Amino acid sequence: RAPPGASQSLTHHHHHHTFEMDLTTFVIICLLLGLVYHGILQYQKQKARADVIQYWLDEHDKKQNEGSGDINTGKQARTTGKRAKMRIQILFSSQRGTSKTYATKLFQQLKKIAKSVTLRNMNKFDPERITQQGHTDLLIIFAPTYDNGLPSDDGRAFYEWLDDLSLDFRVHKNMLHHLNYAIMGLGDSAFGPERFCQVAKKMERCLKKLSATSLVPTELGDNGAGNDVNKQFNAFRERLINAISASPDTHQSKSRDDHPTDISKAVEILSDSDDEGEPMLDIEDMAPTDETKHSADSSSTDVAQISTEDVPEMLTPLLRKSLEKQGYKLFGSHSGVKLCRWTKAMLRGRGGCYKHTAYGITSYRCMEMTPSLACASKCVFCWRHHSNPVARSWKWKVDEPEFLIQNAVENHVKMINSMRGVPGVQKERFEEAFVPKHCALSLVGEPIIYPHIGKFLNLLHEKNISSFLVTNAQFPEQMENVDKVTQLYISVDASNPEALKKIDRPIFEDYWERFLECIDIMKRKKMRTVFRLTLVKSWNMNEMREYAELIKRGEPMFIEIKGVTYCGNSKSSDLTMKNVPFHEEVKDFAFKLCQVEGMEDYEPACIHEHSCFVLIAHKNFRINGEWHTWIDYERFHELVHSGEDFDAFDYVAKTPEWCLIESEEQGFDPAEERVYRKGKKKGKKEPVQQEYSAGGC
User: Fold this and answer.
1) What are the backbone angles phi and psi of residue 687, rounded to the nearest 5°?
2) Cα(544)–Cα(573) distance, rounded to whole angstroms?
3) How far, in Å, CA of 587 to CA of 581, rounded?
4) Is residue 225 exposed (0-12), middle (13-18) or buried (19+ Cβ within 10 Å)?
5) CA separation (Å) from 13 to 27, 126, 173, 477, 584?
């Protein structure tokens, strides 16, 4: 039997527990109501912002129409009825006016039935806008194809941007799920099915790949003999108008005269300026149509002439913010510089990088930079987590090489100056570091695609700065044009097409052919040439015979074998520490590679244990029984300034004993102080694995 007061105590406890549950529920309800209220406020704020923008667009349109005699808005003001709320963007490219004429005629009709219609030349349109939900609902494209199967000059940037976007593995394949599209291609079937309207077909494939939806079937206008392209355009226009009119997003519109403050249609008309020079043959103009004959008259009244927009900059605000967060010093519109960790280490007397060991550079006087942040590959081991843009050609503003070198040095000096007062920094080295002697053009991106790379290299040499140019072997034409460089690299990350596609993930379809062509070009160069092999365990360490075939083909003077650098987790790569080879594995790979048939002329020469690095050199650099892998930099600059023809053997220097693969120092400069990580005892042999590196070359 319960003691006296037990029932009362139990009842009190039950009531107290009930009160706690009610309080929790109340808090949750309050939080939910707060979230709903916040959402409503955000919606109202966005709507108000959109209304203000729309109002100013209307006012701008009204002023333009008043100034031009109100050519178009008279009809619009008298038009009432249903207008689609769909935001329509019409893009065209043309050099003779046909696409422009058709686009303008469609624009004139669509603006009567749609609330927002914009007409632009492709070269004046920022393509990033269509990736933003709420900007464009329907994208209409008029895309001519030339006899070479390519777009017109004014449409090439948009065409390549769309193609690159569809190939970029970092881009979600649902990026354009919000976008509807309609395309009319223009071409001549006489050039064969592969080239006929190739541009329109390619654009449609790219849009579909990014989950955009076709509003009407793509029309392939044929200007060939016996075909009526006008009839095709009219059919395309009719299908499009019917589809837009049938759109559920319609509303009753009223004119400005009835409601002056009503937010009505915003129409922006932008066109291309007159082309200069003689354009190449345009298939769409081979058989002029009746409408084309009157294109000049119609476009002069329907399309406002606006000055050509500037070419876009490579460094967008978002990209600039991302790279600056990673420690890059950016300048101009496409270049950057960063302080290598080995520069910092050698300033403090704690050892130099593998280039110091293999080639005798002074690491604390080395500037790591790039004149192009864009790349044509998306390597799984990219140090930059693919925050830089990818592209197959240069399509941005171009900064002059004098400007780049001046700003690169200035920013490098600022970063050197930031080491002032850091414990261990040696005064003499610190002062010398303000004048760089070497430039590693391997920071990020593909430096060789910079349009003025030749002049850029020459200016470096004029300032007595040696050059180390690294390329992914995807731009043979640019490689052919490189004249003088202290040392030229090709990154050989795989030995066959399948592995290269898996590791480098190049965006060119003919990536392997380009790769081999670059190797053939390198073979003809008289300068110092290097194959750089980055070893990724379980990915590319088993094809030694195939590597040997590539080496035999290119005959590089040196082969760098280096373990991959792990840079932390990244959504763009599934690389882990398990893929990072130990130093002994890298060393073993180098010796075994030299034993493969066809590699008799090569031998392991230098080593840098700390970087998991081994240098294989051609036996021609073993002069009088001693290795000469180092560079006589003063002699190199003398030869460059003399204007005389010279080759790699004219500026060699003897390699010190401590750099050699059999040395006790294992590539660590005995003049430096070796600092061991906490927990690792001096002199104790442990497997060495490449550490995380925030910078390198």
Assistant:
1) -60, 130
2) 25
3) 10
4) exposed
5) 22, 67, 57, 85, 69
CA 38 to chain centre: 37
Closest CA to 284 of 196, 202, 183, 217: 196
Report CA dihedral (110, 112, 114, 118) to the nearest 10 degrees.
Answer: 60
- The number of C-alpha atoms within 13 Å of 70 and in the hemisphere containing its C-beta is 8
Residue 388 and residue 322: Cα distance in Å, rounded? Answer: 9
Q: Distances in Å between the alpha carbon of 616 and those of 157, 276, 443, 465?
A: 42, 53, 23, 25
Cα distance between residue 145 and residue 203, in whole Å: 11
Distance between CA 80 and CA 65 in Å, rounded?
Answer: 19
Q: Does an H or E element contain 213, and which? A: strand 213-214
CA distance 478 to 480: 5
Tokens of 369: 């930079």
Average pLDDT estimate for 81-90: 74
Give the tens place of pLDDT for each residue, 31-55: 888 888 777 766 666 655 555 445 4
**Phi and psi (nearest 5°) for 95?**
-115, -15
The arithmetic mean of pLDDT across residues 313-318, rounded, is 80
Lowest mean pLDDT among 61-65, 147-151, 273-277, 464-468: 273-277
The per-residue pLDDT for 357 is: 97
pLDDT tens digits for range 419-450:
999 999 999 999 999 999 999 998 678 899 99
At 266 the pLDDT is 30
Minimum mean pLDDT range among 107-111, 392-396, 625-629: 392-396
Q: Among 83-87, 477-481, 592-596, which is the least confidently predicted range?
A: 83-87
Q: Does the pLDDT value for residue 691 go beyond 60?
A: no
**Calpha distance 508→60 (Å, rounded):** 44
256 closest CA partner among 248, 266, 245: 266
Amino acid sitting at position 658: W
Count of CB atoms situated within 10 Å of the CB of 13: 10
- At 113, is the pLDDT very low, low, confident or very high (cuts 50, 70, 90)? confident
Three-state secondary structure readout of 294-343: CHHHHHHHHCCCCCCCCCCCCCCHHHHHHHHHCCCEEECCCEEEECCHHH
**Residue 582 per-residue DSSP state:** B
- Which one, of 656, 535, 531, lies nearest residue 584 by Cα? 535
DSSP-assigned letter for residue 129: G
Helix ranges (DSSP H) in 68-174 = 73-78, 98-110, 156-167
User: Based on C-alpha coordinates, what's the Rg of the chain?
Assistant: 32
